[in-house]
Amino acid sequence: MSATTPSDMLSEINEINLSYLLLAQRLLGEDRTDGMFRMGISEPLADVLTQLTAAQAVRLAASSQLLCRFRFDEHAILSALAEKGKAAQIHSAMLMADQSADQTG
């Protein structure tokens, strides 16, 4: 196993950022409300993301910081997502919906 260099890490962050931006634009383009919910983003942020040109997305993706973050700050949400079964999926969806409502309200 070879050591990861800082350059390799930066390249991986850039790839993740670009994938995230492209996914965000696709989700928002297909169903804006659902995309905002799934990504846990506000309407103003959705506006910015949908208006990015390809060149702007590439420049933004070149940041040395991750543009996305875990939405699951609460232990209950992470635990529910890690569980198997339909009940756990429903429970985690309810917790995330409640968290999204708290952030927008």
What does this protein structure show overall?
The longest helix has 25 residues, at 6-30. This protein has helices spanning 6-30, 32-39, 43-51, 54-61, 75-82, 86-104. Helix 1 packs antiparallel against helix 2 (32-39), helix 1 (6-30) runs antiparallel to helix 4 and helix 5 runs antiparallel to helix 6 (86-104). 73% of the residues lie in helices and 0% in strands. It has 2 domains: 1-69, Flagellar transcriptional activator FlhD (Flagellar transcriptional activator fold); 70-105, no CATH class. With 105 residues, the chain is mainly alpha-helical. The chain contains 6 helices and no strands.
- Report the sheet-strand fraction: under 5%
Architecture of the largest domain, according to CATH?
Answer: Orthogonal Bundle
Helix content: over 70%
Which geometry do the CA atoms define? flat
Give the CATH class of the largest domain.
Mainly Alpha
Mean pLDDT: 82
According to CATH, the fold-level topology of the largest domain is Flagellar transcriptional activator fold
Number of strands: 0
SSE pattern, N- to C-terminal = HHHHHH
Distance between the termini: 48 Å
Number of helices: 6
Number of domains: 2
Uncertain regions: pLDDT < 50 for 5+ in a row?
Answer: none
- The structural class is mainly alpha
Name of the CATH homologous superfamily of the largest domain: Flagellar transcriptional activator FlhD
Structural Rg? 16 Å
GO biological process, one term: positive regulation of DNA-templated transcription
Main location: cytoplasm
Subcellular location: Cytoplasm
Subunit structure: Homodimer; disulfide-linked. Forms a heterohexamer composed of two FlhC and four FlhD subunits. Each FlhC binds a FlhD dimer, forming a heterotrimer, and a hexamer assembles by dimerization of two heterotrimers.
